[in-house]
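WARN no homologs supplied; continuing
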Amino acid sequence: MKLGFIGLGVMGYPMAGHLQKAGHEVCVFNRTASKAENWVAEFGGKHAATPAAAAADCDMVMCCVGNDDDVRQVLLGDNGALAAMQSNTLLIDHTTASAELARELYALAGERGVGFLDAPVSGGQAGAENGALTIMLGGDPDVFAKAEPVLGAYGKFAKLLGPSGSGQLAKMVNQICIAGVVQGLAEGLNFAQRAGLDGEALVEVISKGAAGSWQMDNRHSTMLQDEYEFGFAVDWMRKDLGIAFNEANTNGAELPLVHMVDEFYAEVQQMGGGRWDTSSLLARFTRR
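OK structure emitted
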């Protein structure tokens, strides 16, 4: 298929690469043009000077940028991708953004006869690089059925969860759950260190029981080594939690634990850790 991919950050860059490797004809756009040039040098395909040019004549267009404003700019702004798309094509937004924006894009795309899916992902940079992301989607079943085989290039699991906006709502739940799990792991490892336990030996045991989690399996070693210069940044986690707080203000959900963890992440930012991995909650204890 002929595909457009907009946004070549730590997630989008390898995701677009998997599409090209899968045999699709991919044209990419990135606001920093040098990154698009590097992508073409590594994977082949083409790059375009504008989102509209990247989307022209494509069967599907994927977007993976930073926030709601970024999505509006590349899809709806001057030289935005949506205006260049033909009817019976698909637009898939992998950005973690608001459910309100997803519903807006669904309506605007529908006016042009373009199918739309909000499709935030989970799995981090490693998941993107390994083609093993989990994709949570909102939209129409027939649109999802067309997109699902293509999404398999970088997704190990993709599920349609309901109408437009459902994917973004699911991602909010994902981030809410992660925040609590990481804080619990940080407190537990800090307790273990102060109690004189061998952290690695401890995790080897408790990870086999009810305390086990992805965060424990994949982050405990670097946390114990006080290493955080990688992974999903604190700045982005706070952006995602802010989206969840806004939605909670609308639906009445209470998020007391997540508000507390968000304040802890603000402390990490004040320590200079805005670009540290989210597991850096432990640094609040160890670097004081």
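The domain at 2-163 is CATH 3.40.50.720 (Rossmann fold).
OK
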